[in-house]
Amino acid sequence: MHKRVLNFCVIPNHQGNTIGKILETCLIKWTIEKVLTVSVDNASANMVAIDYLRKKMMTWEKKPICAGKYLHVRCLAHIVNLIVRSGLAILDRLVASIRNAVKYVRSSSSRLDVFKKCVAKEKLECKKICVLDVPTRWNSTFIMLDTALELRKAFDRMAEEEMKSWKRMRKKQKLIGRTGISQKCLGKGLGHQLKLTGRQHQFL
């Protein structure tokens, strides 16, 4: 069995007839007259496209097998993806939490560097880096969860260090806030004193 990319083009719109015409043009251009099946997912536009292609192929000299009754083969990967996504919906909150953690780590290069240091401190044998999934592809979600599980200790360490850093920052903010109030009070006192001194000077 050979695999070839026959065409790669921009589709002007996602209407079924448009997709069907593009498929028809590709087959004619490559002089492909024998077509057993066409594998696409279950989107309504794809079903319309296959119906359009079937009608056109019925007018060809070499008609499709069984009048094109089995021309449309549902994409197995898409079906499996729908099944797995349905199962993952039960764990949606847990998966979302892990996804948010990965997003946080990968949101900037500095955070990613901190995470790598946490991996080194934990002496993890895992050489992978946390990856963000594509929600529409269950296998990418599996890779994200599997990698996050191996790097769990690094996530825990980073969370602890971030919390400590946040607490230190809060303490500094409180001290700065108190200092600011003291400076304002001191400024008012000095201003009042200067005014009094000026009056006394004038009086003298």
UniProtKB/TrEMBL annotation:
It is found in: Nucleus. GO terms for molecular function: zinc ion binding. Keywords: Metal-binding, Nucleus, Zinc, Zinc-finger. GO terms for cellular component: nucleus. Its main location: nucleus. InterPro entries: RNaseH-like_sf (IPR012337), ZnF_BED_domain_contain (IPR052035). PANTHER family: ZINC FINGER BED DOMAIN-CONTAINING PROTEIN 39, ZINC FINGER BED DOMAIN-CONTAINING PROTEIN 4. This is Uncharacterized protein. It comes from Rubus argutus. The lineage of its organism: Eukaryota, Viridiplantae, Streptophyta, Embryophyta, Tracheophyta.
